[in-house]
Design goal:
The protein has 346 residues and is α/β, with parallel strands linked by helices. The chain is built from 11 helices and 19 strands. Strands 3, 6, 7, 10, 11, 18 and 19 form a 7-stranded mixed β-sheet that branches. It has a 6-stranded parallel β-sheet with strand order 14-13-12-15-16-17, with helices on both faces. A two-stranded antiparallel ribbon has the order 1-2.
Amino acid sequence: MKAAVLTGIRKIEIADVAEPRITCDKDVLLRIDTVGVCGSDVHYYETGRIGSQVVQYPFIVGHECAGTVLAVGKAVSRVKPGDRVFIEPAVTCGTCDQCRRGRANTCRNLRFLGCPQQIGGCLCEYLVMPEHCCFAIEPSLPFDRAVLCEPLAIGLYAVRTAAVGPGDNVAILGAGPIGLSCLLSARAVGVQGCFMTEKIDDRITTAADAGASWVGNPTTENVVGEILDRCGGVEAVFECAGQQDTVDQAVELLMPGGKLMMIGIPRTERVSVVIDKARRKEISIINVRRQNNCTRDCIDLVTSGRISVDFMITHRFGLDKTQEAFEMVAGYLHGIVKALIEVQRT
């Protein structure tokens, strides 16, 4: 089968690789239709690592995907051949202490699609995944919208973990796909004000059009002052940029007792807070680890039209243009928000 394979820093080649086969009774063989390019994929593309997760070349990345069931193991009952499915990228054990406590996202034995030393990714024509990772989708839900349920689930999980709702004000720092997913999720639960920051002009426009109460550029505006003037402080900040500057801004924006939701993946090993300010405000710092039990809800929200994700899809590529897509995402070029790889495009 054809696959887009990382072969070095900023180098992707289209290669013929062995087709996967069903080896376990609970396995599902899938034909991949559409793959979303995520910021974490681009980390591997640009640097070859995220923290301790180091790529050993050649390696296939990609974890946001949807496709069609081709065959199933003899113990599979959740899906059948011909079903259209969204694929949850986290393969959990279901038996460790974390899984038993309802914390599958911190499973002790978790393996993640497209993560080095765990599982090869989905930028390929065919894939085998466990049954519990396959969520059937309605014929009315296009594959491209289904793929966006992966980042949306992270945003929904972050909003639910922050426990915000009607009457609350929130800030979202960074208007990429994850920040926009937080915006959609916050709006869905009825927050009063949703203030965003972003450095890229096209994304500022996108966030404003998507329902942000106010969007500012931290390179040209005093975004902290502008937000505080409008609401006096926020109950939660969703840090989606992975930058020291945005962490500092978050501490300034939060009301006493507020929550700093750390979602963005920093490229440095350490970030810090001004402890005097964070302590005096009694700020809670919560790291958001992907998502937990939000996948089906996101599929239902998108299928029903209660949340629209179409505006995030800005660019489409065939599998043979994967490197071009990654370069565009890495460089924030041409107003890109979400790039999709249409694997079956001929």
